[in-house]
Amino acid sequence: MNAHVKDPTLWTDVGAVTDIPLRGARRVPSPRGDVAVFRTGDGRIFALRDACPHKGGPLSQGIVHGHAVTCPLHAMAIDLASGEFLGADRGKGCAPTVPLRVEDGRILLGSV
Ligand code: FES
């Protein structure tokens, strides 16, 4: 990457990591659609568009387990890092990931 090119990403502070319980999620409204921000049991943070690629279920209301979430509508499991379905449903769709950073305990979501 050219060091003289500025990062075009705008970063928005959407709250503290500790605002989200372990194995929990939070819905963050955005102009481009809701974002689901997840905190796993080991404290990692992930962000996906809050619409399941199957039929649009709200992933922020799913069950977080490991580094995955199970959609509340039809119980398909999605990898939080890639947004792709897991197991037998792999390859049937992908929830777009959302860029994020964690700085000083704050969650920053990116948009370009
Ligand atoms: S809408 Fe998510 S599994 Fe069907």
UniProtKB/TrEMBL annotation:
Signal peptide: none annotated. One of its GO terms (molecular function) is 2 iron, 2 sulfur cluster binding. Keywords: 2Fe-2S, Iron, Iron-sulfur, Metal-binding, Nitrate assimilation, Oxidoreductase. It comes from the Bacteria. The keyword Cell cycle does not apply. Residues 12-109 form the Rieske domain. The keyword Oxidoreductase applies. Gene3D superfamilies: Rieske [2Fe-2S] iron-sulphur domain. GO terms for biological process: nitrate assimilation. InterPro entries: Rieske-like_NirD (IPR012748), Rieske_2Fe-2S (IPR017941), Rieske_2Fe-2S_sf (IPR036922). This is Nitrite reductase (NAD(P)H) small subunit. Coiled coil: none annotated.
